[in-house]
Amino acid sequence: MTAAVTGAGFAAGVVAKAADESGINWAADLGTHPAIWVAALSVIARFAPTVRWATLRAVGFFVAMCLGYYGWAVVALDFGSGPALRRFLVLWLAMSVTAVPVAAAGMHRACARDGPVSGAVVATVAGLALLTGGAVWRLGLAALGLVPAGFGLRPVQAAADVVVALVIAGVLPRHASTRAWALALLLPAGLVVRLLVDLVSARLLSRPATGDPVLTRECDESCHPAQTAGAARIGRAVVLPLGVTIPVLWQALDGSYGVLEGV
Questions:
Q1: CA distance 198 to 166
Q2: What's the pLDDT band for 92 if we cut at 50, 70, 90?
Q3: 175 DSSP assignment
Q4: 68 and 10 in contact (C-beta within 8 Å)?
Q5: What is the pLDDT at residue 246?
Q6: I want to staple 129 with a disulfide (CB 3.0 to 4.6 A). Which of 38, 41, 63, 204 is the partner?
Q7: Which residues have C-beta within 8 Å of that of residue 8, sequence separation ≥ 6?
Q8: pLDDT-derived band of residue 131, with 50, 70 and 90 as boundaries?
Q9: Distance of alpha carbon 61 from alpha carbon 3, whole angstroms
Q10: Are 191 and 165 in contact (CB under 8 A)?
Q11: Cα torsion 56, 58, 59, 61: sign
Q12: Is the pTM of this model over 0.85?
């Protein structure tokens, strides 16, 4: 099973990079925005038999995904192996062996147990899918009349973000109380993580565009036009682990968990 999950990760990376360079905006968004990857991590963690297997399978999937994504960029798309590509590969591989196993362990435990702490962990992970990609955020701003004409709204990606978040929060947990808490906390958790993403991204995006083709597929509309989507992804990569670390570590402490949940 672990080998199959790892193979699926490599295939997913290749498909995501091919979609990224396909010229089809909605396909590129699905492959590069966080929702699909948060969904993959959550499903792997939920259905693993133990915490150990949840972490191993999640790490295998995401390491293979990184190799497939950037390997396809080099071999098939002839991006070369310049410093920008190597930097992003190292960044995502580092996340795959640090933040990913922590999140997978937390999700496995949270989906198996009931109560508010479990719900908070699930809501935090679901919130990453809901708002950090920006599509739902943009639609909300548009509904309030706070975006200019021609602003890219990405309705397909927004729908995917909402569906993924609702499935993670409302379907994956085994216990009804966990699902209820996760759904109740979904929007607040998503807003907190989104604001953290904006804060870190704003600092990173103060640097000028690099001109590297790997980094300049499209500028995120929430950023200054001179900035790159690649830099925005660095911001998300820094913040996503922060968004899950505190509740996940809390969840992983069995002693504290038993006191809080009465288990």
A1: 23
A2: confident
A3: S
A4: yes
A5: 42
A6: 38
A7: 61
A8: confident
A9: 9
A10: no
A11: positive
A12: no
Residue located via tokens 């809501």: 123
Per-residue pLDDT tens for 178-228?
A: 999 999 999 999 888 888 877 766 665 554 443 333 333 334 444 433 334
- Closest Cα to residue 165, out of 137, 141, 146? 137
> 3-class DSSP state for residue 151?
coil
DSSP result, the chain? -HHHHHHHHHHHHHHHHHHHTSS-HHHHHHHHSHHHHHHHHHHHHHH-SSHHHHHHHHHHHHHHHHHHHHHHHHHTS-----HHHHHHHHHHHHHHTTHHHHHHHHHHHHHHS-SHHHHHHHHHHHHHHHHTTSHHHHHHHHHTT-S-TT----HHHHHHHHHHHHHHHHTSSSSHHHHHHHHHHHHHHHHHHHHHHHHHHHHHTTSPP---TTT-S---TTS-TTS-HHHHHHHHHHHHHHHHHHHHHHHH-HHHHHHHH--
Question: Which residues are CB-neighbours of 149 under 8 A, at least 6 positions away?
Answer: none
C-beta atoms surrounding 105 within 10 Å: 22
Give the pair of three-digit tokens for residue 50.
């133990």
pLDDT given at position 261: 43
Residue 147 structure tokens:
């975006």
Q: Residue 25 phi/psi, 5° resolution?
A: -60, -45
8 A C-beta contact, residue 64 and residue 7: yes
Shortest CA distance to 72 belongs to which of 26, 1, 19, 28?
Answer: 19
User: What's the number of CA atoms in the CB half-sphere (13 Å) around residue 203?
Assistant: 9
Measured CA to CA in angstroms, residue 112 lies from 37, 44, 46, 107, 139 at distances of 21, 13, 8, 8, 34
